[in-house]
Amino acid sequence: MKCDVSQSFSRHYEDLYRFAFRLVGSRDGAEDAVQEAFLRLAGQCAAACDPGPATARDRRSARPGHVEKDGVGASFSGGEEAVRRWLFVVVRNLCVSRLRREAARREVPLDDRREREIGSRDPDPAQAAVAGERGRWVAEAVASLSPEMREAVILREYEGMSYVEIADIAGCSVGTVRSRLARARDKLRELLRPLLEEKP
Amino acid sequence: MSETPNPPESGSDAWRERLSAYVDDEIPPEEREAVEKAVASDSDRAAELRSLRDLSRVLQAWKVEALEPPGDLAREIEAVRAGSGPEKAAETSFASLLEGGRRLPPPLLPRWATQAAVFCLGVLTGVAGIAAWRPEPPSGSHRRIGASPAEGTAPPPVVNVFISSSQAEGLLREVTAEEMRKDLMDSVRAGKRDRALTIWQDLLGRYGDTRATRALAEDRAWGVLLSRHSNMGGI
Questions:
Q1: Quick one: which H or E segment has residue B118?
Q2: Which of A63, A181, B95, B201 is 20 to 30 Å from A113 at the Cα level?
Q3: Is the CB of residue A39 less than 8 Å away from at least one CB of chain B?
Q4: Which pairs count as long-range contacts for B80-86, CB under 8 Å and 24+ apart, including other chains?
Q5: B79 and B224 in contact (C-beta within 8 Å)?
Q6: CB < 8 Å to A90, chain B
Q7: Chain B contact for A176 (CB, 8 A cutoff)
Q8: Which parts of chain A register pLDDT below 50?
């Protein structure tokens, strides 16, 4: 595969940053994940130019469009679309690792706490009608989802990905994506009921 | 097997999954047809469908402005792509930052302040020594006739600087940590990665509360280098 990291960088940086930001909820976390992903991509490209002896895994991952997940790493081959998906996989894995580390440091699980915070807020539609406030409300509601449901919602609703693409990135079956999305939407409809009851 | 399947019971998980997939246009045609029939004949199901569509609209209220990518990221990527590998790139980047001054963390203590601190500590030590010093009373048999007072027992002139012992200790820690930080940077420049990491661990363990350690911890290039080694099990 011809490596053009600069092109990938200019094409995908913003999408990856937005995805990471929505997933981890912090600018630093998002920047770190995206930076790391591009550095790994550059490393992959450098390795591709000087591959060395091929291993069984190398041969397996040399299939067009192949995306292989291994911890927070992944390898790819194929066109620009495969590169994009590979970058999403790496960013996703890095973000999930970060979320797990952060969750482990907390006494109260983040999900429970955020849910309680949202549930205890005064659901005043007039206040929520302020654009910034609506966005914050939505952000908190999405953040209250489990990481698995959150990534499914983000990839579908904000990145417009198909179930197959989401399954590829999340490392699960299409059926699982379908189930996660349905449960996530169920929960979001409860949390965002005041906004949903507003007149458009 | 081409007949339209019955839709799952309204309110069931299976129905919610199917409706969600319908909104996303992710169900096969026969299921789609069944959903449309069910929605057309059941106002509750129709309301649920509207609610799902509204949810998609409401979710779009969350906007995220993409920031400009960090200025040096493209350079780091290019260094890695050039074949020197991620670790080398991080090192190259870090070393170049140190040498070029760009994104170099601001001096923790200006050079003059470091020198002043060392001077103060020296004075403090001197004052303490003088305080502990007890001159022997001059005895007539030992005193040289005609000797000036400065030649014999008189103490040298000193400047008294009063700082508390905790201030002195804090100052000493800052100075030591700053020296260690410089040593770490020299090690990175010289490619002595293991030594740099040993110093870093020492800084974290013993001088974690100093400005030198905090500034280093916030340095992105150093963070990149560290993360490489974390992934390799180096730390």
A1: helix B111-132
A2: A181
A3: yes
A4: B80/A39, B80/A42, B80/A43, B80/A46, B81/A3, B81/A5, B81/A42, B81/A45, B81/A46, B82/A46, B83/A46, B83/A49, B83/A50, B84/A46, B85/A43, B85/A46, B86/A39, B86/A40, B86/A42, B86/A43, B86/B228
A5: no
A6: none
A7: no
A8: 54-74, 108-129
The pLDDT value recorded for residue B1 is 46
Counting beta carbons within 10 angstroms of the beta carbon of residue A82, is it exposed (0 to 12), middle (13 to 18) or buried (19 or more)? middle
pLDDT of residue B146: 41
Q: What span, in angstroms and rounded, lies between the C-alpha atoms of B217 and B202?
A: 13
Question: How far is it, in rounded angstroms, from Cα A21 to Cα A95?
Answer: 9
- Give pLDDT, residue B103: 36
What would you report as the CA-atom Rg of chain B, rounded to the nearest whole angstrom?
Answer: 36
| Chain-chain contact of A153 with B57 (C-beta, under 8 angstroms) | no
Q: How big is chain A by its Cα radius of gyration, in Å?
A: 19
Say how many C-beta atoms besides its own lie within 10 A of residue B61's C-beta.
Answer: 18
The pLDDT of residue B102 is above 50: no
Which positions in chain B touch A140 (Cβ < 8 Å)? none
Residues facing A73 on adjacent strands: A70
Q: Three-state SS string across B144-192, please?
A: CCCCCHHHCCCCCCCCCCCCCHHHHHHHHHHHHHHHHHHHHHHHHHCCC
Q: Tell me which of A39, A70, A136, A195 to substitute to probe the interface with B (most B C-beta atoms closer than 10 Å).
A: A39
**Which ipTM was obtained for this model?**
0.74
Residue B114: the pLDDT is: 56
Contacts 24+ apart (CB under 8 A), B130-138: B130/B155, B130/B158
Subunit contact A9:B74, Cβ cutoff 8 A:
yes
Question: Would you call A178 an interface residue with chain B, using a CB distance cutoff of 8 Å?
Answer: yes
pLDDT digits (tens, 9 = 90+) for B127-174: 666 666 655 544 444 444 444 444 445 555 555 666 777 777 888 888
The pTM for the full model equals 0.56
Q: Give me the pLDDT at residue B9, please.
A: 79
Question: What's the first-to-final CA gap in chain B, in angstroms?
Answer: 60
Instruction: Summarize the confidence of residues B73-98 as an average pLDDT.
Output: 56
**B26, B55, B77 member nearest A189 (Cβ):** B55
> pLDDT class for B12, splitting at 50, 70, 90?
confident
